[in-house]
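Hi support team,

I submitted a single chain yesterday and got back a structure, but I'm not sure I'm reading the token output correctly. Could someone confirm the output below corresponds to the sequence I sent? I've pasted both exactly as they appear in my results page.

Thanks,
R.
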Amino acid sequence: MTDERDREEVRTIAGPFVHRIDPVLGRIGGVHLWWYGLSYTLAFFQTLLFLRRHRSQLRLTRSEAYALALMFSAGVLIGGRAIQVAFDEWPFYREPNRAFARPSLAPRAAEPTRRCNPG
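Hi R., thanks for writing in. Yes, this is the structure output for that exact sequence:
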């Protein structure tokens, strides 16, 4: 009875928004393709198509439209990373030398092999 009650509580708390979507769209040759990467790719491609279609109204040459789309894409990626560092990861980056002092990130020296010498 408690299991049914727990499930009912989960349904009422979470509502219709409970999902278990895998963030990985697929794998090609060991490389993971992520859903958010697909959305970025489609958005950048749509920006390029928009600029190409409306370049005469915007008074852009074809090469200027491509350059503007490339600058927009770079600005989104660099700006997004800067915002993530500033608001989410600033305590880690505040002390840049700390990143190299962490054992998990520091390169490890090869340990000498020890042989068991019975006797």
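A quick pointer for reading it: DSSP finds six helices and two strands in the chain. Let us know if anything else looks off.

Best,
Support desk
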